[in-house]
Design brief:
Layout lengths: L3 H25 L2 H105 L4 E5 L2 E5 L1 H15 L3 H14 L6 H14 L3 H14 L6 H14 L3 H14 L4 H12 L2
Helix pairs in contact: 1-2, 3-4, 4-5, 5-6, 5-7, 6-7, 7-8, 7-9, 8-9
Amino acid sequence: MPSISILALRAVCVAACLLSFGAARAALFEDDEARRAILDLRQKVDQMQQRNADQLRKLSEDNTQGSEQLNGQLGQLRRSILELSNLIESLRGELAAVRGQGEQLAREQLQLARELAEVQRRQKDIAQGTEERLKKFEPSKVTVDGLEFMAEPAETRDYDAALAVMRKGDFALALPAFTDFVRRYPASGYHPSALFWLGNLHYAQRNYKDAMAQYRALVAVAPAHLRAPEAMLSIANCQVELKETKAARKTLEDLVKAYAQSEAATVAKTRLAKLK
């Protein structure tokens, strides 16, 4: 858009041309006509100058308003750019923080996984240890002298303890141990075997009547027990020691009839041949 000085210069040039033209014409007409022509020309020049002034003023105002509007828009644009820049920086910071948090979270998750694995391992160890301890209090299947049965941990412990003392040859301690066992566990699967060993302990101390009582108790409560034939043979031995020969023969004969296929029956036959 042309500047104000250029427009003014153009207006002056136009006015000069019109004045020159008017002067030329004035020389051709009479004085009145020349004066009228000059007045008309001056009026036209004044009108043209006024129009140029108005146009210049309007142009100046438009330029001023356009400049102010442009400055306002530029200012707003600068502020928007600044705000956008600040937002970008803020987003960068937040992104960095999120990345840092993500890395921290990954480390925490890894640590948590390790701790969880350790807890699970400890729980497994505790469960296994608890199960093993509980097994000490739960009945278990055992087999003694060919007889399979369920036994409480206390039964097994006390029976094995009494048997271990007897096998060491300490009959004085083994005798009360088995006596106490028979009294405490009358329904135990160990009971027949305990009666047999208790009879043997009495026999070793020459308590023949007490020994016979234990052997007979075994045969009465468990006639099919593996130790029953041997118990009957031991009863006969006690009777022989007590000089009860007739009773001994009767016991041996019953043994042969009841347990004909046993080793004790074979021994009983030999002894019957010797008894008179």
